[in-house]
Amino acid sequence: MVTARSAVIAVGKRTVPIALWIKKRSGGATRLIHIGRPRATLASFDLVITTPQYGLPHAKNVYELPLPLVPPIDLEGADAAAWAQKFAVMPRPWTGVMVGGNRYPSVLAKADIKRLMQELGELEGSALISTSPRTGAAVAQMRAHVGPRTYLHDWSGSGPNPHQAILALADRFIVTSDSVSMIAEAVATGKPVEVFKTGRSPLAFTWPAKSGFAAWLARTGLLAPPRSPDRISLPEFPQSTAALVRFIRQMVTEVD
């Protein structure tokens, strides 16, 4: 007889104490699945689903994906048809440009914006630029370089946001290196993706935790390696989660 076991799937370090409490209350029967970097003893979890930017050590309960998990494009919510009509006057190919911002250890400096806009001006076709809450003052600098072949969306938290529509409609993508999630979104479309390297903070430091003393520190949760988007490399094909789903299903079922 096959029966299902209870499981907690959690994201973020703040969920860790709650998840551990649930497992303790269940007498250890509850499976704990953590997505990302728990900043706790890795052995406390039945499965840790992570990605390279966190630099976690190898372990039998650590499953490293090449890129973060992202939801499929919401075509209905994206109102792609309306945006396609709006973009129709712009020559193709359309390059979707996903711009993040400052997030340690990455820095989106004025020189980076200038270089990005120069590169976009040299491309064939048009650029559809989607900014983010972290882009901030860099939007004004980009606006000064906007020409007839550039659409710039200034993220403000209100009004229609074409981000999902650009993912659906663009022929190729350029994504700033600070945002691993935006890189994952672009790769998931199956279209060509280029990562635009931004600067790094002069205070940035990092180290791998794949082996040795650093790995022991990370396994015990005493010290996690700093996040580093530079560890990310683009997969040749969009990643499939089918194997991961099968593994989780096996883990939460028991055969009596």
Task: Briefly summarize what is shown.
The protein has helices at 16-25, 75-78, 80-87, 110-121, 138-143, 163-169, 180-188, 212-220, 242-251; strands at residues 2-4, 7-11, 31-35, 47-50, 62-64, 94-98, 106-107, 126-130, 150-153, 172-176, 193-196, 199-200, 253-255.
Describe this structure in words.
It is a single chain. With 256 residues, the chain is α/β, with parallel strands linked by helices. It is 29% helix and 20% strand. It has 9 helices and 13 strands. The chain has helices at 16-25, 75-78, 80-87, 110-121, 138-143, 163-169, 180-188, 212-220, 242-251, and strands spanning 2-4, 7-11, 31-35, 47-50, 62-64, 94-98, 106-107, 126-130, 150-153, 172-176, 193-196, 199-200, 253-255. Strands 9-8-6-10-11 form a 5-stranded parallel beta sheet, sandwiched between helices. α3 (80-87) packs across α6. It is globular, with a radius of gyration of 21 Å. The chain starts with a strand and ends with a strand.
